[in-house]
């Protein structure tokens, strides 16, 4: 087991070895292997476990300390001071109404990075699009945490009617409040990818950390796309809860 893990660590990738060790240790913290208040293995023990240098392990521990998960005390050891599992606080709803309610209760503030008008990008476009869209790119914050990087599009004919609301509030609740009759179908597709430099800077995460990308599209009765969005969430904050319908007795 140890030899296989060490071989995986040494597999040539662009990710520094210290970050690989950091993610492995972080995973152990998330699983609750080391609860709050417990001491994690010593530096020599971790060096022996993973077959890497002291400098590599030390750099990984420095990163975990910077994230506020552990505290290193000279002469005493390294102790867990926060529950990494509780970082998964951002629930991503799987239906439209719950999504709107969730955003309304998040106490969101945002930083606007860009505003403009134009066409939908190919990833959000099909044969049923409006002539033009109002667009905004924002970083969404709650409790001083940048939890998503959003680029949102609203059909321009709708955006013009409630321009101030769209510019000063989260977009989805504005759509739900003023244009409920325009929403007939809505879809969401979720994929996982690695953070590039831009994502990492805006979301205050490391380059290469996993982010979840949600693509959302809402259409009216004529199947015209009236709302679309590409939203990036740091995966370390996210969880998804799905309730399945029990089988009928006849099934």
Concise description?
The chain has 251 residues and is an alpha+beta fold.
Protein traits:
251 residues; 10 strands
Spatial order of the strands forming the largest sheet = 4-5-6-9-8-7
Overall pLDDT metric:
89
Q: Shape, please?
A: elongated
- Total number of β-strand segments? 10
Largest sheet: 6 strands, antiparallel
Number of helices: 9
Q: How much helix is in the residues? A: 25-40%
**Low-confidence runs:** none
Structural class: alpha+beta
Tell me the strand percentage band. Answer: 25-35%
Listing every helix as H and every strand as E from the N terminus to the C terminus, the arrangement reads HHHHEEEHEEEHHHEHEEE
Oligomer: single chain
Describe this structure in words.
It is a single chain. This protein is of the alpha+beta class and 251 residues long. Helix content is 31%, strand content 29%. It contains nine helices and ten strands. It has helices spanning 2-9, 17-30, 43-50, 54-66, 96-104, 156-159, 163-168, 171-178, 197-203, and strands spanning 70-73, 77-80, 90-91, 109-118, 133-142, 145-155, 185-194, 210-219, 225-234, 238-239. A six-stranded antiparallel β-sheet has the order 4-5-6-9-8-7. Strands 1-2 form a two-stranded antiparallel ribbon. Helix 2 (17-30) crosses helix 4 (54-66) and helix 3 (43-50) packs across helix 4. The mean pLDDT is 89.
Write the layout of secondary structure elements.
Layout: H1 2-9, H2 17-30, H3 43-50, H4 54-66, E1 70-73, E2 77-80, E3 90-91, H5 96-104, E4 109-118, E5 133-142, E6 145-155, H6 156-159, H7 163-168, H8 171-178, E7 185-194, H9 197-203, E8 210-219, E9 225-234, E10 238-239
Parallel strand pairs: 3-10
Antiparallel strand pairs: 1-2, 4-5, 5-6, 6-9, 7-8, 8-9
Helix pairs in contact: 2-4, 3-4
